[in-house]
Structures are given as structure tokens and as C-alpha cells.
Specification:
4-stranded antiparallel sheet; 14 helices; 17 strands; elongated
């Protein structure tokens, strides 16, 4: 039998009982779709993490108090710390460490913002320093940003995010206007260009003010007022990544000197953007591996289903096998025919599973906040695995059919 004839006969055998064939392929369809969707979900998560971290700015070093947990796109939260970071540490880094372009400290608060008849509740205030636009790769669309005089003299000035400016001043120029932030008045000195959302932080909906104003007016408790110069995270932007190790060592030595401790007992942790990305990707990769193995079980179950149905098919078609042998079909022809049937079942299931994986990934991304990225490698892996399953689990039934005695097969009722 030539290959085309084997394909035709095998396809006719599969389509002869369509419902049984579809049910047989179901395990393969689910397994292939699951593999593609799991990898797409994981790749999308990794891409989002990298985008969120790099969206903070480029060439950054994060200096945090020990036991601090960094959250990309926002202010870190601490479960406790040693001596802790203070505001003057940032100034010392800027003055003493070579190779640094900018140093930024952030301290957050939430307040009601009012201008005229417009009242906006729960607006995020971001107390920052002059280097913030440089570190965050943000642009000023009108006016100016906070300068060192504002910080040193604790001037009540505000820079508005793009969306916040549109909400408060839809029909007028915000520069020079005075608005109420909680119980104090602030003068608007600038408006930032549109930045968008990075991670879960909408930078366009925030109000930016000198960090010293946050310390002075927006600390939540008496204890916080006493320790008002404590900061949770310092962002350091370097001018050349080739000098990364040298700059990190300089920062460590400076922190050890300022905090009167040794490098071994340093009470701060220094990490880079790549450290954060690598840690997040390691977690994502472990999760992906676990889910991929779970998806592989579906492929295994599908393969067992193919073998079971092929064994039933061999039994049902015993007389047909005998007739084919009687008219000249060799054991190799019979083996190849049944092996082709198993491969067609798994390959068709693989194609349907691939389409299901595409659709499922798209639906998951469209109706949730999670991004998915379908990788070509996952398609090749899934289809290749489906074909391998078909060949592996189809070989035994095909071999059993090929080994039948033609006389016994013709006598079979």
C-alpha cells in the first residue's frame, strides 16, 4: 500500500464512527490546550513583571530597610527593619557616591483634594524629591517640577498627574491655582505629561509634593511624627550599568558608615531591577512547570484513551484485517495502517487543542486583567507531544493487528 492509500483508509476508519473518535481525541484536545494556555499565562505574567519593573525607570538600584518587601510600581511595605533608612541617607548617596544620576525618595499618603466645587476623595499623595522625573522617566507638560528649595523650605506646592489635572481643572490652566489637600492649601506649580498605569499604580491620578511636606503634615500618628524622616525605599539611578557593582559597593560602604555598622551586619538591602525581575521570573517558572506537568497528565490520559479505542478497533475489524492479509497486505502494511490511524487521531486532537488554546488564551486575557502571550515554542511542544503520544500509545494495538494470523482472522465472527 502506498502512503496516500494508507492515509485514505485510515481517515475513513476514523470518520466511520465520528462520536467515538471525537471522544477519543478529547483528552488530547484538553491536554494540548492546557499546555498552550499555561505557557501563555506564564509568559504573559513574566512580560508584565518585566514591563512593570522597567516602567519604574531604567538603570535603577533599590535601597531598602531590611525585611522590606518591594512592590513594583508602588511604595514598599516593611514588616520591620533594623536601624532603618532616613531621609538624609538619600542626600548622602547623591553627594558621596560617584556614577549616580539621581536619587529619589518617596513617601505616600492619601487625602481628599478639593478645588472649587470639585471634591476628589482618596487621592494618592506622593512625597518626592527633585530627581523623581529623571528616575521615573516622566516629563513635565506644564510649569515645573519640585525643586530643592521646595524640599528644604517645606513649601506647600503640588505637581499634578495628567488625569488629576484634567479632573480638577477641565477648562482652566492649573498653574498657580490654589487647591485644598486635606486641611492645608497647596499651590499648583506643574503638571506631568501622561504616563499611564505601571503595575497597579496610576501615576496620572496622583498628586506630587515635596517629601518634607508629607513628613510635616500627612503623618498618621504621633509615633510617625517622631520618626517622620524615616523612609522605606530609596531609588538610585546610575549613569552606566557597567559601573553597577562599583556603585553598589559604594552605597554599602556609605550606609555602613552612616548607620555605624559593618558590611556583614548592614541594616539595608540593595537590589537591582534585574534582581527583582529574576526573582519574579523564577517563581513564575516554577509555577509554570507545575501546571505544565498537570497539563501533561491530560495528554497521558488522552494517549491511554487512544490505545483503548485502537484495541477495540482491532478486535472489531479482525475479519477486515484477515481479508487485507489474504489479498496481499503485509504485516508492515497492517502495522502502518493502524499506527497512522492513531497518529491521525492524536494529530487532529492536537490541532483542535491548539485552536482551543488560542481561543482560551485570548478569552482569558480579554475578560481579566492578566496578560497572556502565546509562544510559538509552546505550540510546537504541544503538537509534538500529541504526535508522540499517538505513536507511543498506538504502537501496541497496531503491532497486535500486524501479528494476527490471517486464517484465524478470516474465521473470526
Amino acid at each position: 500500500m502506498n502512503p496516500l492509500e494508507i492515509l485514505r483508509v485510515s481517515w475513513e476508519a476514523i470518520t466511520r464512527n465520528k462520536v467515538r473518535s471525537v471522544l477519543t481525541m478529547l483528552g488530547i484536545i484538553i491536554g494540548v490546550a492546557a499546555v498552550i494556555m499555561v505557557v501563555a499565562f506564564s509568559a504573559g505574567t513574566e512580560a508584565t513583571i518585566q514591563q512593570n519593573i522597567t516602567g519604574l525607570g531604567s538603570n535603577l538600584i533599590f535601597v531598602s530597610a531590611n525585611f522590606a518587601q518591594f512592590r513594583p510600581g508602588g511604595v514598599s511595605s516593611t514588616a520591620g527593619s533594623g536601624t532603618g533608612l532616613v531621609f538624609t541617607d538619600a542626600a548622602a548617596i547623591a553627594d558621596s557616591v560617584s556614577g549616580v544620576d539621581a536619587v529619589v525618595v518617596e513617601q505616600g499618603a492619601t487625602e481628599t483634594v478639593k478645588f472649587g466645587t470639585t471634591v476628589l476623595d482618596s487621592i494618592s499623595l506622593d512625597g518626592t524629591t527633585p530627581g523623581f522625573p529623571t528616575v521615573r522617566d516622566m516629563k513635565i507638560s506644564a510649569g515645573r517640577y519640585i525643586n530643592q528649595t521646595d524640599v528644604d523650605q517645606k513649601l506647600k506646592v503640588a505637581v499634578l498627574g495628567y488625569t488629576l489635572a484634567q479632573q480638577l481643572f477641565p477648562n482652566s490652566d492649573p498653574i498657580g491655582q490654589v487647591l485644598s489637600v486635606g486641611t492645608i492649601k497647596m499651590t499648583v506649580v506643574g503638571v506631568l505629561a501622561k504616563k499611564g498605569t505601571v503595575g497597579e499604580v496610576d501615576y496620572d491620578a496622583r498628586l506630587y509634593t515635596p517629601i518634607t511636606v508629607i513628613f510635616e503634615h500627612f503623618t498618621d500618628s504621633r509615633f510617625a511624627r517622631i520618626n517622620g524622616d524615616r523612609v522605606r525605599l530609596i531609588y538610585v539611578k546610575i549613569n552606566n550599568t557597567k559601573n553597577m557593582d562599583s556603585i553598589i559597593l559604594q552605597v554599602k560602604l556609605l550606609m555602613a558608615k552612616l548607620h555605624k555598622t559593618t558590611l556583614d551586619n548592614l541594616d539595608v538591602t540593595i537590589t537591582t531591577q534585574q534582581d527583582v525581575i529574576t526573582a519574579q521570573q523564577s517563581t513564575s517558572a516554577a509555577f509554570r512547570s507545575l501546571l505544565t506537568w498537570v497539563a501533561a497528565v491530560s495528554l497521558l490520559v488522552g494517549g491511554i484513551g487512544i490505545m483503548n479505542i485502537m484495541l477495540v478497533s482491532v478486535t472489531e475489524r479482525t475479519r477486515e484485517i484477515g481479508i487485507r492479509q489474504a489479498v496481499g497486505a503485509t504485516p508492515a502494511d497492517i502495522l502502518l495502517q493502524f499506527l497512522t490511524e492513531a497518529l491521525l487521531l492524536s494529530a487532529t486532537g492536537g490541532v483542535l487543542g491548539m485552536l482551543s488554546g488560542f481561543v482560551g488564551s485570548w478569552l482569558f486575557s480579554a475578560f481579566s486583567t492578566t496578560r497572556t502571550v502565546v509562544l510559538p515554542s509552546s505550540i510546537l511542544l504541544a503538537i509534538g507531544s500529541a504526535a508522540a503520544v499517538g505513536i507511543f500509545f498506538g504502537f501496541y494495538p497496531a503491532s497486535k493487528a500486524a501479528q494476527m494470523d490471517p486464517i484465524d482472522a478470516l474465521r473470526y465472527e
